[in-house]
Amino acid sequence: MSHHPQEPARYALHPQLAADTHPLASLELCDLRLMDDANYPWLVLVPRIAEARELLDLDAAQRHRLTDEIDLAARVLTGVFRPFKLNVAALGNLVPQLHVHVIARFEDDPAWPAPVWGRVAARPYSPEALVGRIRLLDAALRA
Fold first, then answer.
1. How does residue 6 score in pLDDT terms, banded at 50, 70 and 90?
2. What's the number of domains the chain is made of?
3. Does residue 63 lie within any of the structural domains?
4. How many Å apart are CA 14 and CA 19, to the nearest integer?
5. Is residue 1 part of a domain?
6. What percent of the chain has pLDDT over 90?
7. What is the DSSP letter of 42?
8. Which of 77, 104, 133, 139 has its C-alpha lying 20 to 30 A from 39's C-alpha?
9. What kind and span of H or E run contains 92?
10. Over residues 13-38, mean pLDDT
């Protein structure tokens, strides 16, 4: 019986996150993605760390970097949309891969004041709206 050294795990985006989000930017630590739900301006940060499930799977430098990138996402959403409130959450019950939601909330949004999960059906962007939203966010990221 021959023993092969185990190949190190490689980062790969969880298929559910790939299906539910659109790529926006590649930050130092995270892939920044747009949730395909036009009900809310909703960004998702996914650290490119193989097999990370929890914040505690990141080392101190990675945790600090993630905090900075959450701050960037929050500032972009605030600058572009002027939300009443930001929701920031890492749940990962259905998708175990570590990812952080940053969601701009408004008092007249479809789920207000409840959390967005399971309240109303996601409303996928039309192709034109998606292009416009990504352009807007991309410009804010570069500013």
1. confident
2. 1
3. yes
4. 9
5. no
6. 90
7. E
8. 139
9. none
10. 97
> Which residue shows structure tokens 């996601």?
122
**Could you tell me if residue 8 is inside a domain?**
no
At 132 the three-state DSSP class reads helix
Segment (H or E) for 88: strand 85-89
- What is the domain-level CATH number for residue 28? 3.30.428.10
Radius of gyration of the chain, Cα coordinates, nearest whole angstrom: 16
Tokens (6 digits) for 7: 């190949």
Q: Which residue has the tokens 């959390």?
A: 115
> Is there a domain that residue 34 lies in?
yes
Which residues lie below 8 Å from residue 28, measured CB to CB, with a gap of 6+? 65, 69
- Please list, residue by residue across 107-121, b when 16 or more beta carbons sit within 10 angstroms of its beta carbon and e when fewer do: eebebeeeebeeeee
Token pair for 123: 């409303």
pLDDT of residue 94: 86
Nearest to 125 by CA among 46, 39, 43: 39
DSSP 8-state class, residue 51: T
